[in-house]
Write a structure and sequence with these properties.
This protein has about 120 residues and is α+β, with helices and mostly antiparallel strands. Helix content is about 30%, strand content about 30%. It contains five helices and five strands; from the N terminus they run βαβαββααβα. The protein has a five-stranded mixed β-sheet with strand order 3-4-2-1-5. Helix 3 crosses helix 4. The chain is globular and about 40 Å long. The N and C termini lie far apart (about 35 Å).
Length: about 120
């Protein structure tokens, strides 16, 4: 899987992290050629070290990676998660590609006052 961007998210992005905060990451991936050809591109991949039946602890990590296609849809729809990712400070970015730089450079194209 080719990663376009991976960043810290949640409390760390919003500046509200405490010593008890878990780590949250968001990112975007490019689907494989096979996924594209077969029309089976997943919206996202989720990974968590926490247990479903209990609240995360400071030792837990949650990762959500959106497919490129789904992220573009989220951004076009003005979804908060996409806008937060587009405006994340460079200090929150753990890895990025040139594709991400181009997306961020053109982020204003996702802005609209044309509400549904």
């Amino acid at each position: 899987m080719r990663i376009i961007v991976k960043m810290k998210f949640g409390a760390h992005l919003y500046g509200t992290a405490t010593s008890d905060s878990d780590l949250d990451y968001k990112g975007i991936f490019l689907p494989t050629k096979e996924q594209l050809l077969l029309g089976c591109v997943p919206k996202s991949h989720n990974y968590s070290t926490g247990k479903d039946e209990s609240r995360n602890t400071r030792n837990d990590i949650d990762i959500e990676l959106y497919s490129f296609h789904y992220f573009i849809k989220l951004a076009c729809d003005g979804q908060t998660v996409a806008m937060d990712m587009l405006h994340a400070p460079e200090s929150m970015i753990l890895m990025k590609s040139k594709i991400w730089d181009k997306i961020v450079k053109n982020k204003q194209k996702f802005y609209t006052n044309n509400h549904k």
